[in-house]
Amino acid sequence: MKSHVLGIDFGSTTAKVVILDEDGNTVASCVSQKGAVSDEGVRAALRGAFEQAGIDLSAVVRVVSTGYGRRMLDIADRTITEITCHARGARALVPEARLVIDIGGQDSKVIALDRSGLVARFAMNDRCAAGTGKFLEVLARAVNVELEDMGAEALKAEDTVAITSMCATFAETEVISLLAEGRPKQVILAGVHQSIASRTVGLVGRVGKHDPIVMTGGVAQNIAAVHFLEKALETRLIIPTGAQIAGALGAALFALDDLRSASKVKRDDDDAVEAKLEQLLADPQRCTPACGKKETPVTFKG
Amino acid sequence: MNTVLDKFAQAAQRPYEHVKAWKQERGVKAVGTLPMHFPAEIIHATGALPVIVQEMPDAITSGGGAMYPFFCGYTRSIVDQVTEDQLGFLDAIMFTDHCVQLLSAADVIRISRPETTIHFHQLIASLRQPWSLESSVKTLRELVADLEEVLGVVVTEEALRHSISVFNENRRLIRDLYQMRRTGQIQLRASQMQHIVKSSMVMDKETHNALLRELIASLKTSTAPRSDEVAIFVSGHLCHAPRPEILDLIEDCGATIVDDDLYTGYRYVSTDVDAGIGDPIVALATAYIRKNDNVPCPTRIDPEVDWEEWLLGAVDRCGAQGLVVLLVKFCEPHYFAYPRIKAAFERNEVPHLMIETEHDGVAMENVRTKVESFVEMIKVQRAARAVAA
Ligand code: SF4
């Protein structure tokens, strides 16, 4: 039986899981959207991933967790930050990447990579949700548009309006008064995305702009966020297949390193991983479907 | 050993309780000073207890209405302490200015609490002019005369010389601890070093010296080389102490802080006063204008010393693999210097991370992610270099 490794990105709004086999083939990747740092989300993503991979829990011998809730998972052999994992995952997906923009639910990061793909420096939003997925979520609610539709709606606008508030709550008030003034939803949404783009450009300025730029994280799937960011940065962004699972992929690759640097032979305590996984998955509140959303499998080999 | 460290921690965490108890026990006066350049030896020579007014972690209330929110946390905190009547135990506050915000804070204190005795003297900011020494001597003589008048005492040369030697010993003992820590001979956390230095700012110096000697004698020393995973130099945070939780967080993320230039750290003890100079006022003035040779201060004008170049050297000398800059929000002198520090570290490819701190608190989880990522970045780069070598 082949050994496998698990990378878990326990984000603020989604959980992502990637399983690699010992040869570095991606055998499963799964995203589950279950709201704020939820165990249920992790369980759903894990179930989905195991279903996809068609392997036993006992096949997993190394686990690395990342993301906002990384320290909440006692199944992890070690935790690594999302900055390091997104950099590793993005570079694996796009080997020529020199800059990674990751806009997640709770924070946004810009990571500069050196020529050999290592993190050279990074910048992260400091203290509020400005420029993050949360900002989009709050404002989607304010204009009464589904989160997944807001990008397409924003791109229908022929004009934009400036959203000046940095804070998501103040921006919500601003948006409500714009609606009251009769501004079209699309125009407001364009302004919201423009605002995200300008915050991100500020972070890019802190680490320096280096092409090619890869965008990862959930917001990479928002076409308006990408559009306004490309406009602001005056460059094309590479959005790889599996952009959302880049962090989990990075975590899995670190787990693979650990496996390769140790003996491939099953260790005595490998059973501990299985036991912990069993315990985590044995929660009575089983959720269906197992996986909130199946990613198009990434064809990555580590 | 713990009891000595506990005493330092107690005085550092509750500085004013310590001072009030000391005053009551000894029947002495306590004179507050504001950081960072006031020669407190002069207060000590009067027999009064010199106390560096500390930033307090309490929320800013009535003082908030007297100061703009874009002033640094230290100045907003001290104004709040005055308007909240927390500094009444000080018999006077004497200071030398070093930045516009500090001066403004003193003005606000004067206006909002006219009964507070707060005196200010202007030490020359430019340290390398032919007249810098003469100007500093003149200012310090005026300051002594002013203090004599405020306290109704006479400061003798002999008393000044004695105070200088007590302060020099205090600085030397703390520097010894720094040196032992740099080499890995002793293990003291950065927050413990902060307690040691901060307590020195409010405790009677002779008592502090005795405790330091006791501590040094009781510390277990090791001859094994330092075994830190990632050694870090911490820089910045002028005028007041970073919250110890931030220092602990940095060290809990897999880094060891091996050296610093914090004001509540090595900066405070970097420069001795030359006891060989006959006139103690000249000796104090000389120490002032030479301070920048040991740890450059961004509030002073010195065309011969660049903080960023000094920092690159300091990081290298202590064997650190990276620099963490703790930048106080709205600290103008530091804001002015930081871009050059950033550029120099990037140019020299020495990892550095800036963390902005605020009186009202920082998002600790956000800081944790940044520091952990920084430590991981250094480890991964180090491993890659080892493979390449
Ligand atoms: S030097 Fe910085 S911290 Fe000190 S008073 Fe001025 S602004 Fe505040």
From TrEMBL, chain A:
Cofactor: [4Fe-4S] cluster
Gene3D superfamilies named in the record: 3.30.420.40
Origin: domain of life: Bacteria
Coiled-coil regions listed: none
Pfam families: BcrAD_BadFG
Record keywords: Iron, Iron-sulfur, Metal-binding
InterPro entries (alphabetical): ATPase_BadF, ATPase_NBD, CoA_E_activase_dom, Dehydratase_Activator_Redct
The ATPase BadF/BadG/BcrA/BcrD type domain, residue ranges: 6-255
PANTHER family attached to this UniProt entry: BIFUNCTIONAL PROTEIN [INCLUDES 2-HYDROXYACYL-COA DEHYDRATASE (N-TER) AND ITS ACTIVATOR DOMAIN (C_TERM), BIFUNCTIONAL PROTEIN [INCLUDES 2-HYDROXYACYL-COA DEHYDRATASE (N-TER) AND ITS ACTIVATOR DOMAIN (C_TERM)-RELATED
Entry protein name: 2-hydroxyglutaryl-CoA dehydratase
Origin species: Aromatoleum toluolicum
UniProtKB/TrEMBL annotation, chain B:
UniProt name for this protein: 2-hydroxyacyl-CoA dehydratase
Stated family: Belongs to the FldB/FldC dehydratase alpha/beta subunit family.
Sections of the chain in a coiled coil: none
InterPro entries the record matches: FldB/FldC_alpha/beta (IPR010327)
Alphabetical UniProt keywords: Iron, Iron-sulfur, Metal-binding
Keyword Transmembrane helix attributed: no
Record organism: Aromatoleum toluolicum
Record-linked Pfam families: HGD-D
The keyword Magnesium is annotated on this UniProt entry: no
